Amino acid sequence: MSRKEWPLWEVFIRGQHGLNHRHVGSLHASDAEMAIHHARDVYTRRKEGVSIWVVKSNDITASSPSEKGPLFDPAESKAYRHPTFFDIPDEVGHM
Amino acid sequence: MEKAATGAILNPVEDRFVSDDALAPAFFEWLCRMGDSALVLGHRVSEWCGHAPALEEDIAMANTALDLIGHTQMWLGLAGEVEDKGRDADALAYLRDALQFRNLLLCELPNGDMGVTIMRQFLFDARHYALLMRLTGSVSPRVAEIAAKAVKEASYHLERSSDLVVRLGDGTDESQRRMQAALGQLWPYVDEMFVADAVDEAVAKAGIAPDPSDLKAEWEETVRSVLAEAMLDMPGPAGFAQTGGVIGRHTEHLGYILAEMQFLQRAYPGARW
């Protein structure tokens, strides 16, 4: 008997208000609503979240590992892009 | 959601019903009905742990089972206080025999396939949610407190089981056939959820709980709309209702559940770990 697998979903959870949703893992589910339910059951059993996003893994377009050089290496030698050349007055405090 | 290990409620609120001697026999019976249905269904659902058809369902069902066992600790804990004979939730769960169990027959029926398990859960959840919602307004503060905790979980159980009924009912030919068969198989057991006897009348008269028959309209509305969305035919009134669970007349299945569930405490009385 052929066994149809449910599609794969990526799960993102916001740990608390004000923080970003973070990727926590993936799971199988028949549709988006069930994916939310499954994510609740699998990833928030210990009250880890206040919000869940799910997205079909197929719908994610990822950069290719083989393009790593052209994509990321050029940024390496451009230290002036880091905002480390400003004097911050003491009164400003922690930024 | 997991529970604290003991389920005991610290600093219980003042509740005159807990020490009302005249009401105690009926109140105790009723609390055992609440606790035992949650316990037996929780145990049944836990039987899927490690065997469910998908990892996600396995975890979801284990969560549901844990929720129900958590409810049991609260209901049977309060039952022990009302009875006032030194029995706690564990003593009631592990050291009573089938004739003293007060669960609905629906809860002890075998898991069958996922169709039966999900349909049984849905039929139970729809009534459980309606009941707990009413109980949050109970005149007994302790009952209202337990219901307020439990209803959040029951609300999620109902959402989950409704969604699964819709997906399996309106799914493949095979899943629809199994869901319709499950519905037919379980239907004779639903009426027991709405039959009132002297125990129900006593706690209803005291304002502790609704009369079970008052829940039927709300339950029917939920079931009718979910089954319609699931493309399943709602059976007509059951010609013969299977009843008796709440007064201790059980199917042959309960004994096997208790044999497994109670073995450790029976063989090694007082064992702890």
What is the compact description of this entry?
Chain A has two helices and three strands, in the order ββαβα. Chain A has helices at residues 32-43, 68-72; strands at 8-14, 21-28, 51-56.
Description of the structure:
The complex is a heterodimer of chains A (95) and B (273). Helices cover 18% and strands 22% of the residues of chain A. By secondary structure, chain A is an alpha+beta fold. Chain A has a domain of 60 residues: Phenylacetic acid degradation B (Ubiquitin-like (UB roll), Roll). In chain A, strands 2-1-3 form a three-stranded antiparallel β-sheet, with helices on one face. In chain A, strand 1 and strand 2 form a beta hairpin. The mean pLDDT of chain A is 88. By secondary structure, chain B is mostly helical. Chain B has a single domain, classed as Ferritin (Up-down Bundle), CATH 1.20.1260.10. Chain B is 60% helix and 0% strand. Chain B has ten helices and no strands. In chain B, helix 5 packs antiparallel against helix 9. Classes of the chains: A alpha+beta (95), B mainly alpha (273). At the A-B interface, helix 1 of A face helix 2 and helix 6 of B. Chain A: It holds the Pfam family PaaB. Chain A: This is Ring-1,2-phenylacetyl-CoA epoxidase subunit PaaB. Chain A: InterPro entries: PaaB, PaaB_sf. Chain A: It comes from Cohaesibacter marisflavi.
